[in-house]
Amino acid sequence: MRIFLTLLFIYFAFLIQTAIKRFTPELVLLLLVIFALYEQKGMVLILGLFAGFCLDLINPKTFGFNLIICLVVGFGVSALQGYIYHGGRYLFILLGLTLVLRYFLAFVLLNATPPLIEIIVASLIILILVIPLHSLIHRLFCNQWKPA
Amino acid sequence: MNRNHKHSRWHSDSSLFRNAPSAQWAKRIGEGRLFLVFLLLSIIFLFIPGEIKLGLLKYPRAILLAPLNITLSFFTDIHSLNQENKRLSLLATQLQIENAALKEILQSKSNELKMPELSLQRAQIIGRDHETMLCFLLLDRGEPAGIRVNMPVITESGVVGKVIQTSPLQSLVETMLSRDSKIAALDQRSRVTGIVTAFKTNQLKMNYILPEADIQIGDTIISSGTGGVFTKGLLIGTVTKIDNLAQRLFKDIIIKPFVNIYAIEAVYVITGEKKTEQLKIKTKTKEIQTEWEKILEELKIEPPFEIKLR
Question: Helices then strands (H, E): number in chain B?
Answer without folding.
Answer: 8, 12
